[in-house]
Every structure is written in structure tokens, then in C-alpha cells.
Amino acid sequence: MPQSPATTETFAAIDLGSNSFHMIVCRLSNGELHVEDKLREMVRLGAGLDHKRNLDAETQQRALACLERFGQRLGGIPRQRIRAVGTNTLRVARNAGDFLARAEQALGHTIEIIAGTEEARLIYLGVAHATGVEERRRLVMDIGGGSTELIIGEGFEPRYMQSLYMGCVSMTRQYFADGSITPKALKRAELAAQVELEPVKAIYRKLGWEKALGASGSIRAIRNVVQAEGWSDDGISLDALKTLRRALLDAGHSDKLSLKGLTAERAPVFAGGVVVLLATFKALGIEQMRVSEGALREGLIHDLLGRVHHEDVRARAVNNLARRYHVDLPHARQVAETAQVCAAQVADAWSLDAQESRQWLQWAALLHEIGLDIAHSGFHKHGAYIAEFTDLSGFSRNQQRLLAALIRNHRRKLSPTAFDHLAEKHRHRARHWAILLRLAVLLHRSRSPEALPKIKLKAGENRLQVKFPHGWLDTHLLTQADLAREADYLQAANFSLTFS
Q: SS in 3 state form for 113-141?
């Protein structure tokens, strides 16, 4: 019997960290994931922030050159199987927007800026897949260049996550900027780390864990040193970290560090990473930590697999948020279905991707009434605030702003500039999706289980014509009045709505 050909898909993930840029390319063949390529460059993006939190020109050029090289490797991989994310430095940089436009051009792909909790979720996902399914509760720690993530989880599910504003680059810049490692500087750095950990240490100790795992370059570098020096046989111990602290003081300067297993490129930020790890061991009562080879980029790959194969964590996050705010789900699903049917009719005229439109209209419809749980007056504004500032797994910052804009503009006045604050790539789609959502909400205002008639839509760039079956509007005068008012709202936004 002839065998069916093997199915193979290639995925790529890019992590624009504050210290290093990473890319991983994987091949999924018959359900098995294989790493094809790994690229890593020490860009030190975090070190390029000036006193006003702007990325300097030299660092930007170094980053762009790296992304151009990464972009060459992405050739031939479908866009939906690539995900690139920026972390702490790009979260805080004031000129991140300008840099991102150039970075996306260099890479040839969209770059998402993700929140600290989303970074933590992806890190945990990468570690969990690298270490295998375990029902035991585990603590996962990742020290990046500008932030440190702490996650407690079970199996593949994170249960509690925090992103702390301390990392190997930021600590080094603040306390060891000239390379000197003095007792005074070390104590000041340790105190700063303890202050950052103080608000969260009680809850982590209360939740507890059976196994501590470390991820990222800093923790792997520390593991390599303490094992090469013979200070720890298995992972990293608290005693080994204390010995390493003394070795840092003995050296007195990053240039004089002569530790087995320490690379020259890691040495300048090594002390900052040691401070963060040792402070965390002490604050959380960790005695021993093993090191995982999985991290953020591996988490991105597994998250992408879910998106492509219909296990998108974003859908689950939206459903959970809708339930948390007691949304009338049957009504919301009616709105979603109508909006999606309308979108299919105008997709060509408005250059909308069919699958993408279905997805975003589904999410926006499910959440358009979450603000009602706060107050009826201005509930679209309350809902937009919730959608933008809550922690939504799988969403980038720009994606949450897009979702919030759809919710904010699903009713009442629509300004011509309502979507100008969004990333440029989202503005055109957001305006048209919002109009479709508004129409669907209007048509279901009565919340009647009665099926809507089949309507026909005809669209131009700034106009929409809606045609109902003959005589239907004459028997639904409230809908007719709502449509007339909607036409006035849209006219103020330089858009023409007609109906018959």
C-alpha cells in the first residue's frame, strides 16, 4: 500500500532581548519537532539606552545589522509561521516606535513588543516543553538583560507570574558601569535586587514548588562556571553562588575575571546576573536550581504551533476574560457571527484577509460588553480600558491596543482620528472592522433569538451600502431608526452608510 507523503512545516522565532538577539528555526515533521538552526548575537540593546531612555544610534545600527542577517535566514518560511518579539528594552525605550519601523524592514517581518507577563508565559512554555510534562509544581526563573521573570507552574500551565525590573545589563549599567566590582558596589546592587523582590517573595514562598529551574544565558553562564570550577555538581547551589560572589570580589574588575567556563562576551555583564540570581536564591529560599535549555524562543515556537494548528492561546484568554466580566455569551456570539458574515461580503473591496477578519471580529464581539460589569454609562470606554491594560495571554501590546480600539468604537460617536494611535499596519483594518462590528451590534440590539434576514453588502473604501429583503425594514422601525442614527455617526467620521 503506498504511503502518504510526510508533512513538513518550518517555523521560526526571533527574540530581541535586552542583551542578546536569538533566532531558532524548527521543522515539524509528522508531529515531531526538530531544531534546524539557532542563531545568537550579543547586541546589548539595553546598554544602548541613554539617560532619557532613548536607544543610541550606534546600538540601533548594531541591532539592525543583526536583524538583516536573521532576515536572510527567514526566506521561504511562510509569514504565519514566524513570530518575532521584543522584550524589556523595547518596552521602556522612548524611541522604540521609530526603531521598530526600521527593525521590521531589516528583518522583513512584524515585531511585537510583549508585556512582562506574556514574556513570562512564553518562557515557562519553552522550559516546560524542554523538560517534559511534570505534574510537580515548579519554579522557573529567567534573567534577561533588563528584566527577570519568575513563574510558578504545573505541567504546561503557568499559575503565577511576575516580571521584575532587574536584569544582567541593567544591574551592570547601574552598579558596575566601569567594570569595577567593589564590596560597596556589590552590596548596593544586592540591596536593589532585594528591594525589587520584597513585594513578591511572600507569595512565592507561600505557593511553594518542588523543583527550581533556570533559563536564559545568564543562568546558563553561571551554571557553566560553578560546574567548571568544581563548586557544584548538579546545577547551581546556594553555596556555589556564595563562592562565586567571593570570586567576583577577588577579581575586582570584569576584565580580570578568570573563571573556567566564562566566555569573554559574557564577562562584562556577568556580575549583574550573579547579583540577581543570588538575591533571588536568598529571598525565595532556593537551595538548588537546575538549568533548562528551553527559554523564550522555544516558547514562541510552541505558541506558534498552537496558533497554526487551532490551539491559539489568545482565543482562550478572550473567552476567560468574557466569563470573568459576565458577558452574555449567546448574544456576543450572535454579534460575532453577523460581523463575520458581513466581513466575508466586503473582504475584497476592503482588502481584508478573511481568516484574520474572522478572528479579530470574534474576539472584539465576545468582549464588546465587558465594560457593563463596571457601569452601563460609557461601558464601551470601560471595556476598552480593560482590554488594553489587563494581562491577555498571547497578545502583544499593539494587539491589545487594537482590540481596545474596536471595543471603544463599537458604539456612539466615531472620530475620524479614532484609530490614529494604533500602529500604522493596524489602522486601515481597524476602521473597517469597527464599522462591521458596529453594524452587527446594531442589528442585534433587541437581543432577540429571531434570526436576522439575509442582507447584502456592497462596499467602497469609504462607503457601505446595506440592502435588506423587500419590506423588512418597514416592519422593523427601531432598526431603521438605529441605522439612520448610525449613518450620522459614520458621516462625522467621513464614512458613508446607506441602507434600503
A: ECCHHHHHHHHHHHHHHHHCCCCCEEEEE
Grid coordinates of 253: 574588575
- The confidence band for 119, taking pLDDT boundaries of 50, 70 and 90, is very high
Q: What's the CA angle centered on 392, arms 391 and 395, to 5 degrees?
A: 120
Count structural domains, the chain. 3
d(CA 213, CA 444): 51
**In this structure, are 284 and 323 located in the same domain?**
no
pTM of the predicted model, to two decimals? Answer: 0.89
**Is 2 part of a structural domain of the chain?**
no
Dihedral sign, Cα of residue 386, residue 342, residue 81, residue 320: positive
Residue 376: is its pLDDT beyond 50? yes
Please indicate, yes or no, whether residues 396 and 446 belong to a single structural domain of this protein: yes
Whether residue 1 has pLDDT greater than 70:
no
Please state, in angstroms and rounded to a whole number, the distance separating the CA atoms of residues 185 and 191. 10
> Are 269 and 384 within one domain?
no
End-to-end Cα, the chain, rounded Å: 60
Closest Cα to residue 401, out of 420, 417, 414? 420
What is the arithmetic mean of pLDDT over 115-138?
Answer: 90
* Tens digits of residue pLDDT in 194-207: 999 999 999 999 99
105 and 158 belong to one structural domain: no
